[in-house]
Design a protein that fits this description.
The structure holds 2 protein chains of 2 kinds. By secondary structure, chain A is an all-alpha fold. Chain A has helices spanning 18-66, 77-87, 95-110, 123-134, 136-139, 165-174, 179-186, 190-195, 207-219, 226-249, 259-264, 268-275, 286-306, 313-321, 324-330. Chain B has 2 domains: 1-21 and 106-367, Rossmann fold (3-Layer(aba) Sandwich); 379-447, no CATH class. Classes of the chains: A mainly alpha, B alpha/beta.
Chain lengths: 339, 452
């Protein structure tokens, strides 16, 4: 020792780092990734690999050659976006869809605002919505694909129609069928939905895989439960009211599915656990988080019941992202000694 | 188990020196006694070069209401009086005394006999505390006699003895709770008499079960002897930093929150550290001034963990050399704990009454990592025990927005370091907040000061 370091307190730092937090999110996503690979096979591998590669590459190129700063890919946030984007795409998506999504997610949504922490909207969701609007046919193509553990898993509940449960219900109702008829025809099974069989994008197959990730994130204190739980509560209460009114007073035909169906299908679980809880684009305070979550739940259900899309989770998260600065301004946590 | 309600962090407590009994450090050849060992005005030096002094003799007199007596910690000859660098390198008036023998001033009881009878006369108690230079040893070194005499119209109903020692590494309070528990309880009873309160609570964190047992034993023993010790009890607290922060400790024990810019007495509480309580015992029962204190010398890279009884004014380099020198891989030496302590830039500086530890950290443990973008994780806000939003204060401070800073309560910051400790992006939150806070408090003061 010849020279002493001198700096203001504190002199120690917690093991927390941005990279560690992002790594935890990646670990939490592993169950969902494994399930998607098992069920969608090489298709999922291609989607995941291209999404990951182009997300990381876009960030590297932008920081290195446009911003002329040291690359920030080491913080792992582009990896998280890459995985999330892949989990939001249908297994039939070609590699260039992932590339365009990655460019919109990282290049447009994140880096134009200044990189990690500066963006207003969730990159992966923005990428997905951009693709959904620009390439609707590709983004809703649930044709059967060959997985690693089954011959021809479709992703959709019904192998012949190639649709997600939400699409089936919405279209069935539009055709004037009652729920009982739709159920009878397609045979939804909650146990299947819960474990493996939710039709939809790669990340939406298994509720249990997402929930394992949720529990890991909570246990590692990466996220707080407020946002996720308030989304679930809103979806359950909203759909519960419609379902009960339907069940009790509209004796002839039931049109509204039960709350569990609404919670387990579509993007509610994936979105509420991994996308709505994104630090950068969600409110800072617990109170703000609850408002944010209720907003997402409400908008999702309004789109599902009254909108033209069968699913509204992505739109709901994006819309609520835009309210975050306002929520942060008005929702402060309680200060000590200032009742 | 009680604890404070907002924020807090859980650094590893690293009490590696907890098992080391307090040993007395041999007196050095020369001591350097600072005239500025307390909060408030530096003391006026009343000795000059060539004077002979005895241990416990007054060498500095208080220079104002908030100031304190300073005593010689050794017997010997004053060699010089003048500026000398303190731990951070600032010149402060020191008295240099060459040690000759160990002769104590008249009227000081240096025996180890425990004196348990509590004097009736509260003025006598306060005078002894004041004349023996007792200051708060929990960190702030606020003159204890001032704290024990609330302004007119204000009355305490609870005395809290702070044995939380929530800073990692520090074990000096823990060791005195084990080895001098009876003296601490007598000190508490003395302050209880002065404040005329019924309720005395000793707050100890749950990571120190032996201290809880030992202190409880002392309370039981003394309570069986005299009614003066009724009403003293122990409250075990959940381990969480900054439990020992005055406002946090009061809230943990009483559920009362001291208002912004307020004082503990506003909610009827007075807080004193266990080490202060021990100093009060010595001052009142033994008429022994505050001339030595327990210093923890520790660090993962330091081979000889120690808790030493050190005479005030001992050069820190002397302590370190006594224990085998600065370890090769130590990069930073800290006076105090790793969360709120000060980095020492001058190892020749002398210890003060309030010096609680010398801590060695390696470069890997202490070196700041490069700052990256805020990811808005809100972990700093979650950690802040005052319920502030450090991420926001940091941004406002960097943009010089003083009005907004005040509105967002930057003046409430207690500089505990939880925000910077937590921040995953390594943003130097407290650095900017500390500077801006000083500025905002100056603005508030200039506004409320009477116009001349």
């Amino acid at each position: 020792m010849n020279k002493l370091l001198v700096s203001p307190s504190p002199h120690i730092h917690s093991p927390l780092s941005t990279k560690r937090l992002m790594l935890d999110v990646v670990i939490a996503l592993i169950p969902s990734v494994i399930v998607s690979l098992l069920f969608y096979g090489w298709h999922a591998v291609i989607v995941l690999a291209s999404s990951l590669f182009f997300c990381v590459a876009t960030e590297y190129v932008v920081t290195k050659y446009l911003m002329k700063k040291p690359s920030t890919i080491g913080d792992m946030s582009a990896v998280v976006t890459g995985i999330l984007l892949a989990l939001n795409l249908p297994p039939t998506a070609p590699w260039w869809i992932a590339m365009i999504g990655a460019f919109v997610a990282i290049g447009v949504t994140k880096m134009t605002f200044g990189g990690l922490g500066q963006n207003l909207f969730n990159p992966a969701i923005t990428g997905r919505v951009f693709l959904l609007i620009s390439f609707p046919a590709i983004m809703t193509n649930w044709d059967p694909v060959k997985g690693f553990i089954n011959a021809g898993f479709t992703g959709a509940v019904d192998a012949t129609s190639g649709e997600t449960p939400l699409e089936i219900v919405k279209e069935g109702l539009a055709q004037g069928l009652s729920l009982d008829q739709i159920y009878a025809e397609h045979g939804f099974d909650y146990m299947e939905m819960f474990f493996t069989n939710i039709g939809g994008s790669a990340g939406e197959i298994s509720a249990i895989a997402i929930l394992i990730g949720f529990i890991y994130l909570l246990a590692r204190k990466v996220i707080r439960p407020h946002i996720t739980l308030s989304i679930w509560a809103t979806v359950i209460v909203f759909s519960g009211i419609f379902w009960l009114v339907d069940l009790l007073w509209m004796k002839d035909v039931t049109v509204y599915t039960d709350p569990l169906f609404q919670l387990l299908t579509g993007g509610v679980l994936l979105g509420s656990v991994f996308m709505a809880t994104d630090y950068v684009t969600s409110p800072m305070s617990d109170k703000g988080g609850i408002i944010f979550g209720i907003g997402i739940g409400l908008i999702t259900m309004l789109i599902r019941y009254f909108g033209s899309y069968p699913e509204g989770m992505s739109f709901a998260i994006l819309l609520m992202n835009s309210t975050v600065p306002l929520i942060n301004k008005f929702c402060k946590q309680k200060k000590f000694g200032r009742a | 188990m009680k604890t404070f309600s907002i924020g807090g962090v859980h650094p590893h407590d690293k009490k590696i020196s907890a098992g080391c009994r307090i040993e007395t450090l041999p007196t050095p050849k020369t001591v350097y006694i600072s005239m500025s060992q307390h909060l408030g005005a530096p003391a006026n030096c009343i000795v000059a070069a060539g004077d002979k002094v005895k241990a416990g003799q007054v060498i500095g007199e208080p220079a104002g209401f908030i100031s304190a007596y300073v005593h010689s910690s050794v017997s010997g000859t004053v060699k010089s009086v003048g500026p000398r660098k303190d731990i951070t390198g600032n010149p402060v008036t020191h008295v240099e005394i060459e040690v000759e023998g160990d002769e104590w001033a008249e009227g000081i009881d240096t025996s180890a006999t425990l004196v348990t009878s509590i004097p009736e006369d509260t003025k006598f108690i306060v005078d002894r505390i004041k004349n023996n230079g007792v200051v708060g040893l929990g960190g702030a070194t606020f003159p204890t006699n001032v704290k024990l005499c609330p302004p007119p119209g204000k009355k305490a109903d609870i005395l809290i003895i702070n044995g939380a020692e929530c800073e990692p590494y520090l074990t000096s309070d823990y060791r005195i709770m084990l080895e001098k528990s009876r003296q601490i309880i007598v000190g508490a009873a003395l302050m209880k008499r002065v404040l005329d309160v019924q309720d005395v609570v000793v707050g100890i964190e749950s990571n120190k079960p032996e201290a809880v047992t030992e202190m409880q034993k002392a309370i039981d023993e003394l309570a069986s002897v005299s009614a003066d010790y009724k009403g003293i009890r122990i409250q075990v607290l959940k381990k969480k930093y900054p439990q020992g922060g005055e406002k946090q400790l009061i809230e943990a024990i009483t559920r009362r929150q001291v208002k912004s810019m307020g004082l503990p007495i506003d909610v009827g509480a007075v807080v004193q550290n266990v080490a202060t309580s021990l100093a009060v015992y010595d001052a009142v029962q033994k008429n022994r001034p505050l001339v030595d204190n327990t210093v923890t010398v520790t660090g993962d890279c330091f081979p000889k963990q120690s808790n030493l009884l050190v005479r005030v004014g001992t050069p820190i380099s002397y302590i370190i050399d006594f224990l085998g020198g600065v370890p090769a891989d130590a990069a930073k030496v800290i006076s105090g704990g790793p969360m709120m302590g000060k980095a020492i830039s001058n190892l020749d500086a002398a210890t003060l009454k309030g010096t609680s530890s010398v801590l060695f950290l390696t470069e890997a443990q202490t070196k700041r990592k490069p700052e990256s973008n805020c990811i808005r994780c809100a972990k700093c806000a979650e950690a802040c025990p005052m319920g502030l939003e450090p991420f926001l204060l940091n941004k406002l401070a960097r943009n010089g927005m003083m009005d907004e800073l005040e509105k967002n309560a930057i003046q409430d910051c207690i500089e505990c370091g939880c925000c910077l400790y937590t921040c995953p992006a390594n943003i130097p939150l407290l650095d900017t907040i500390r500077v801006a806070k000083g500025e905002v408090i100056r603005i508030i003061r200039s506004r409320t000061a009477p116009k001349k």
